[in-house]
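User: Design a sequence. Structure:
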C-alpha cells in the first residue's frame, strides 16, 4: 500500500465520540467504510449500541465529508469532534469495527446518557483541581500516564480501563474529599468513569470537557498545570501544548511510548525491545521481532506499507 500524497499543510486529524442509543449501528459500517476509503481517510471508528468512538485522519475535504455523513444521521446530529494536524499520515489503514462497547469498561448498566459527571471547561479546570477539597484522578492507563499528567493527580496505574472500577472499589480514601475531578485523553473514558462514580455513590463528580487534548489546545502553556506530553493512539505517539507533535517514539514490541533518553538505552532496538519490555522478552521473541522489523524496513524501501506493522 502506498502513502496518500501529503498536502502542504499535512493531514487533518479528527478525534470524535458520541454516546447515544443506536440499535441500527451495524447498518452504518459498510457505507462509512466505503466513504472513508474513497475520501482518502484512514484511522479507526468503533460503532456499538451505545454510539461511536474513534480517530481518523486525511485531507481536509475527506474529513469534512466523513463528519458531514455522520452528522446527517439523526442519532449523531449533535456529534462534536476535535481537530489537530499531522505532518505525515498517522494511520496505516481504515477500520470501521462493530463492538459491544465504544470504550470497554465491562460494567453492565453504566449509561452516560442517563447519568454523568459535571463538565468543566478547560478555562475553569485549573481552579477546580487546585481546590484542596478536590481529588484529581487520571482515568488513563499506565503507559499513558508515564509521559504526562496534571500536577497532583492520582494515578491508578491500570493496565486497561476494565481495571478502573476495581481500583475505585479498593480505595475507600476517595470518599475523604467532597469533589472528584477526572480526566482522560479526549473525554470518552471520563463519560463512563463519571457515570460509574455516580453509581458508586459519589455526589460531586466532575470531568474535563474535551479531555487533555482540548486543554492543551486552549490553555496557554504559561498558565498550564499539565506536565509532560499526552499519549495519542496513532503514529504521532504524543502531542504537547498547541497540539504540536511530541518527540516520543513507540516501541513496536510492547507499544510503550519512549523518551529520547530511553531510545538511547542499550536495551532499545527498533521493533525488537526497549527498557520497558526487554526483560520480559525471550531470545526467541527477539529473533522473531527482528525478522518482522527487517520485512518492514524492506517494504519501506520499496515505498510500500508493511501491514504487519
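Assistant: Done.
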Amino acid at each position: 500500500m502506498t502513502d496518500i500524497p501529503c498536502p502542504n499543510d499535512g493531514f487533518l486529524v479528527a478525534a470524535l465520540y458520541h454516546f447515544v442509543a443506536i440499535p441500527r449501528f451495524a447498518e452504518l459500517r459498510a457505507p462509512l467504510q466505503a466513504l472513508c476509503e474513497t475520501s482518502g481517510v484512514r484511522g479507526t471508528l468503533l460503532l456499538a449500541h451505545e454510539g461511536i468512538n474513534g480517530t481518523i485522519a486525511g485531507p481536509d475535504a475527506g474529513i469534512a465529508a466523513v463528519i458531514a455523513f455522520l452528522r446527517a444521521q439523526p442519532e449523531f446530529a449533535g456529534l462534536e469532534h476535535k481537530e489537530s494536524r499531522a505532518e505525515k499520515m498517522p494511520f496505516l489503514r481504515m477500520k470501521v469495527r462493530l463492538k459491544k462497547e465504544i470504550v470497554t469498561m465491562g460494567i453492565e448498566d453504566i449509561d452516560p446518557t442517563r447519568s454523568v459527571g459535571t463538565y468543566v471547561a478547560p478555562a475553569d479546570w485549573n481552579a477546580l483541581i487546585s481546590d484542596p477539597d478536590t481529588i484529581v484522578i487520571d482515568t488513563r492507563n499506565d503507559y499513558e500516564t508515564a509521559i504526562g499528567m496534571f500536577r497532583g493527580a492520582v494515578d491508578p496505574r491500570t493496565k486497561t480501563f476494565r481495571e478502573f472500577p476495581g481500583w475505585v472499589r479498593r480505595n475507600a480514601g476517595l470518599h475523604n474529599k467532597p469533589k472528584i475531578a477526572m480526566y482522560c485523553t479526549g473525554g470518552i473514558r471520563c463519560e463512563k468513569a463519571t457515570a460509574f462514580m455516580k453509581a458508586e455513590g459519589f455526589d460531586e463528580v466532575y470531568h474535563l470537557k474535551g479531555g487533555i487534548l482540548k486543554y492543551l489546545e486552549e490553555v496557554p502553556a504559561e498558565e498550564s498545570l499539565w506536565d509532560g506530553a499526552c499519549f495519542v493512539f496513532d503514529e504521532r505517539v504524543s502531542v504537547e501544548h498547541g497540539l504540536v507533535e511530541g518527540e516520543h517514539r513507540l516501541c513496536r514490541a510492547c507499544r510503550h511510548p519512549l523518551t529520547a533518553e530511553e531510545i538511547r538505552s542499550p536495551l532499545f532496538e527498533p521493533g525488537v525491545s526497549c527498557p520497558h519490555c526487554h526483560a520480559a522478552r525471550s531470545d526467541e521473541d527477539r529473533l522473531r521481532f527482528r525478522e518482522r522489523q527487517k520485512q518492514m524496513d524492506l517494504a519501506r524501501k520499496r515505498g510500500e506499507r508493511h501491514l504487519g506493522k
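Residues 148 and 228 are 4 Å apart (CA to CA). The chain has a mean pLDDT of 93.
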